[in-house]
Structure formats: C-alpha cells, structure tokens
Amino acid sequence: MKSLIALLAAATVASTAFAANSIEKLPSGVVVEHLKEGTGPHPTADDVVRVNYRGTLANGTEFDSSAKHGGPAVFPLGQVIPCWTQGVQKMRVGGKAKLTCPAATAYGDRAVGPIPANSNLTFEVELIGIGQ
C-alpha cells in the first residue's frame, strides 16, 4: 500500500510538471500559448515594447527573427500586425509565448517579403521590457 501511495504521488508530481502551458484563444482567432509566465507588468497597445522573437510560416520555415537583426526589437505595440498588438498585451514582462496568428490578424491577402498572401503565422516572443 505504501508503494502504491508513493507511485500515485510521483505520478501527480510528474503530471503537474508536464502540464500543458496556459493557452488563451482571443475573439479574433489569435492563440496565445504562454511558454513561460512573466512576473512584470502587461504592456498596453500604447506602449513601446522590447522583444526577442522568431517568426515561422505554417510549414515551420523561419522568415524572420530578432537574432537576424542583431538582438531585441523595439517598437510601438499599436503599430504592428493585430496578432502582435493583441497577443503581446496578454504577456507579462519576463514571459515567453507562442502566438498563432490567423492570416486576417497578420498580413491578410498581402504578400510581404518571404510571407505569401493569406498565410497563418507563428511567432515565439519573449517580452523583455516596456519602454525604450
């Protein structure tokens, strides 16, 4: 009996450790999967944010990353694609998330650089800070 209790306790700890990440689906269809919860404040659409990011097409092909540009990107959150404006506001400073962006919340029917028109996009985003 003692070993059964120990086995159940170990299974509970293991399932908690490997529990699914927190996932939010926004009304626009944007999905925010929190990979690491931050402890700082949430940005607003009026804030300038500092992030590390990696963007991929639905087939996994990387089309851009902050590393390609030499480090974190800084931009006004209200002046980017809707997926970013909506998704990054759900994050806290210090957090990491995967944003799944339906085409309508990304570039829609426009082709942009290596991104074909009507593309669903995925971004891994680390929110480093708010403000410049």
UniProtKB/TrEMBL annotation:
Residues 1-19 form the signal peptide. Its EC number is 5.2.1.8. This is Peptidyl-prolyl cis-trans isomerase. The keyword Signal applies. It catalyses: [protein]-peptidylproline (omega=180) = [protein]-peptidylproline (omega=0). Gene3D superfamilies: 3.10.50.40. GO terms for molecular function: peptidyl-prolyl cis-trans isomerase activity. Keywords: Isomerase, Rotamase, Signal. SUPFAM superfamilies: FKBP-like (SSF54534). Residues 46-131 form the PPIase FKBP-type domain. It is an enzyme of class 5 (isomerase). Belongs to the FKBP-type PPIase family.
